[in-house]
């Protein structure tokens, strides 16, 4: 447990509720920022509008999750469908924020993971829509790891451990992918996915590297059943972006990876 549970239960509930609310609001902002950026628009100025009719959305139409449910997934003015991924990403991010506070308390480590969760959300949304993982977002994740590690006072040793874990996850995967590309005669995994695995590895450990890879594969199989409009440019028909699966696996591993691996290893002691 963490220091959060040394306070009154009501305070704990309030902290978790505030964390979840913050997660939902920030997820809504990230979704808006990604959509506007991909459309070549600024996400720093202008009111939120319906993508179909252009109607400016009011406060009650912008409440994460609940507005979508209240409007039954449609714009109140033109009836256009609002993508279900909006409430799904908002709800999942809210749950992740609450879980991180529950797991790690109110701390710099929690802040590091919350920021990384938002970066991973942006990575997942961009990759799902474009089949491309932005180096800028990966760099933001690396900076999050470096700056918050230094702020926690852990220094060069922690940075070195993260670098080792990231390399241990990405380098063998890169070698396997190069062999597979040669055998298949085509790209078997994008370079962005490998760089994302490296970035994710920074936040984990050698013990959780294999778990992240396994979870990403399992989640990727599940996402294969989620309908997509078209294959992205340069990808074979039916190709599924791997970034969302890697991102989800990273969040799950940061939350419960170490306890899971420890429990598994204890089975052999």
TrEMBL record:
**What is the protein name for this chain?**
Prepilin peptidase
Membrane-related topology note: Multi-pass membrane protein
Protein family according to the UniProt entry = Belongs to the peptidase A24 family.
A GO BP term, please? signal peptide processing
Entry superkingdom: Bacteria
> In the record, what terms sit under GO molecular function?
aspartic-type endopeptidase activity
Question: What Pfam families does the record point to?
Answer: A24_N_bact, Peptidase_A24
Domain Prepilin type IV endopeptidase peptidase, by residue range, is 114-224
Q: Where in the cell is it found?
A: Cell membrane
Record's keyword terms, sorted: Cell membrane, Membrane, Transmembrane, Transmembrane helix
Transmembrane annotation, as ranges? 6-39, 110-126, 163-184, 196-226, 238-257
Q: Which GO terms describe its cellular component?
A: plasma membrane
Q: What coarse category fits the chief subcellular location reported for this protein? A: membrane
Organism annotation: Flintibacter faecis
Q: Where is the Prepilin peptidase A24 N-terminal domain?
A: 21-104
């Amino acid at each position: 447990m963490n220091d959060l549970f040394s306070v009154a239960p009501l305070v704990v509930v309030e902290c978790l509720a505030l964390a979840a609310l913050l997660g939902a609001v920030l997820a809504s902002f990230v979704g808006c920022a990604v959509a506007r950026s991909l459309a070549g628009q600024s996400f720093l100025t202008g009111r939120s509008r319906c993508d179909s009719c252009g109607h400016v959305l009011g406060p009650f139409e912008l409440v994460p999750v609940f507005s979508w449910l209240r409007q039954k997934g449609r714009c109140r003015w033109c009836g256009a469908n609002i993508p279900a991924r909006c409430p799904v990403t908002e709800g999942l991010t809210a749950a992740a924020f609450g879980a991180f506070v529950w797991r790690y308390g109110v701390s710099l480590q929690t802040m590091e993971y919350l920021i990384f969760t938002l970066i991973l959300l942006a990575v997942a949304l961009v990759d799902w829509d474009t089949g491309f993982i932005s180096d800028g977002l990966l760099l933001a994740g690396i900076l999050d790891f470096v700056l918050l590690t230094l702020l926690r006072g852990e220094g060069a040793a922690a940075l070195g451990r993260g670098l080792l874990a990231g390399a241990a996850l990405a380098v063998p995967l890169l070698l396997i992918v190069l062999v597979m590309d040669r055998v298949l005669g085509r790209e078997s995994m994008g370079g962005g996915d490998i760089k994302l695995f490296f970035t994710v590895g920074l936040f984990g450990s050698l013990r959780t590297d294999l778990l992240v890879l396994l979870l990403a594969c399992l989640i990727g199989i599940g996402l294969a059943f989620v309908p997509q409009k078209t294959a992205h440019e340069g990808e074979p028909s039916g190709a599924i972006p791997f970034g969302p699966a890697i991102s989800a696996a990273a969040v799950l591993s940061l939350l419960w990876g170490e306890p899971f691996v420890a429990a598994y290893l204890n089975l052999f002691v």
